[in-house]
Specification:
The chain has 444 residues and is mainly β. It has two helices and 34 strands.
């Protein structure tokens, strides 16, 4: 029996439905005029409002799994699909397709939008073989740019490794991190290479965020800050566990937060290959004796959240989110960390291992609350007013209170909400799932 959500009227219509409002009474456009980074901003809290009261009652149908966060710019929705690699543009209100383009590999994370152009990365998480452990991505990999109105291709830039993370845009340049352990900078209009930089490991899904001309990205088990003016690494912090699967999140007070995947340091690379094959996570991690005393000597390993000074890289605090055997997670070696969302002085993050949503006070590192869902959580939540909205890997959409984590409502759907999460534009929530749909719902 499906649970009826009181907080969110989620539709399953595939027909054109418009609200009865007159256009002249509304804002010029429903969504923002650009979307330059993963989940709209460096906090990962993809929430935007211009007081447009038009109601969206639409479900958007794609040909394949949606694992990305949907992107809304003006009156259009942009989203890519997983296996088929098709990039769609939909009219937000009618649900009609504006155009689509087929890419040569997976689209695993967000498109971004700047200067009337849509940019998207493509690639897959596979490794060629054990002789190339530092290059992730088979087949064709790269970034493509399309005219936002017509869908016509503007350029493509091919890379040796995958570009599963969303690119970032700043001042006419596009930045993207890759499975061949590099950060590339290209001219956003032409796709011509400006410069590149070696990173301390491949990047899986850690979309780079840019703040104050510093780019932050997770590269294997390192969190890296790159000075874009100097074109060099400003600081890096390693042995965090794999932070390559989650984009970092930045607070207004200059704190960068990231989670590390649970790891098993007792296995060698050869043993990891034997266990995981071409999806070998290639993780390294060290537990100190002091940490063993504090957290226990758990050979199944640890799952931490870290907070760093964004300017200096100083570790401000960390906390053990939990542990657990691999078999507790449906796909243990992929999407093994939850993405952090920041609102004010609180970091909200879910975990596929602890099967819970947590809230941390950023200034102190204190865990405020933890709410068990009994299902893995991977996508970043969205926070608006007094509520946190998030989906889990088994298709349930939750609404919980920000102050104490109390579950207000939950609604069940077919298909996982992972690794993408919800976004909120005005009073409408959008979320994609792996049953080839983007659902919408009115929060009021």
């Amino acid at each position: 029996m499906k649970k009826k959500a009181l907080f969110l009227f989620l539709t399953v219509f595939f027909v054109s439905v418009l609200s009865g409002c007159d256009d002249e009474d509304q804002a010029d456009s429903f969504g923002p005029t650009s979307w330059k980074q993963y989940r709209f901003n460096t906090s990962n809290n993809a929430v935007f409002s211009n007081d447009d009261s038009r109601e969206i009652t639409q479900t958007y149908k794609t040909d394949d799994e949606v694992r990305t966060n949907p992107v809304i710019v003006e009156d259009n929705l942009y989203v890519g699909t997983h296996n088929s690699g098709i990039l769609y543009s939909f009219d937000v209100f009618s649900g009609e397709e504006n155009w689509h383009q087929e890419l040569p590999n997976w689209i695993h994370e967000d498109t971004i939008y700047a200067d009337d152009t849509v940019f998207v990365g493509y690639g897959n998480r596979k490794f060629k073989d054990s002789f190339h452990p530092d290059i992730r991505g088979t087949g064709e990999n790269g970034v493509a740019a399309f005219d936002a109105e017509t869908g016509d291709e503007v350029w493509q830039y091919e890379t040796p490794g995958e570009v599963m993370p969303a690119p970032s845009y700043k001042d006419g340049k596009l930045y993207f991190a890759t499975g061949d352990s590099k950060l590339y900078t290209v001219n956003a209009k032409t796709g011509e290479l400006d410069w590149d930089l070696d990173l301390p490991g491949w990047v899986s899904m850690s979309a780079p965020h840019i703040e104050n001309n510093i780019l932050y990205v997770g590269a294997l088990d390192n969190l890296v800050a790159v000075d874009l003016e100097q074109r060099k690494i400003k600081w890096q912090k390693g042995e965090l566990g794999s932070v390559t699967d989650v984009p970092p999140s930045l607070s207004d007070d200059g704190v960068v937060i990231v989670t590390g995947a649970k790891m098993n340091p007792t296995l060698s690379k050869d043993e990891l290959y034997e266990k995981y094959g071409e999806d070998m996570p290639n993780l390294t991690f060290t537990i100190t004796e002091k940490e063993k005393e504090k957290y226990g000597d758990d050979k199944d390993n640890y799952h931490f959240i870290y907070a760093f000074n964004a300017e200096t890289g100083e570790l401000l605090w960390k906390d053990l989110m939990g542990t657990g055997p691999d078999q507790d997670v449906p796909i243990p070696h992929t999407n093994t960390s939850g993405a952090v969302t920041i609102k004010d002085d609180v970091a909200f993050v879910g975990s596929p291992y602890t099967k819970s949503m947590m809230a941390y006070q950023i200034s102190s590192g204190e865990k405020i609350w933890e709410t068990k869902t009994d299902t893995p959580i991977k996508g970043a939540p969205a926070v608006k007013d007094d509520f946190v909205y998030f989906g889990d890997a088994e298709g349930t959409l939750f609404k919980v209170q920000t102050d104490d984590g109390k579950i207000v409502n939950e609604d069940d759907f077919d298909g996982a909400f992972a690794p993408g999460g919800p976004i909120i534009i005005n009073d409408t929530l959008f979320i994609g799932n792996q049953e080839q749909k983007i659902y919408t719902g009115n929060l009021q």
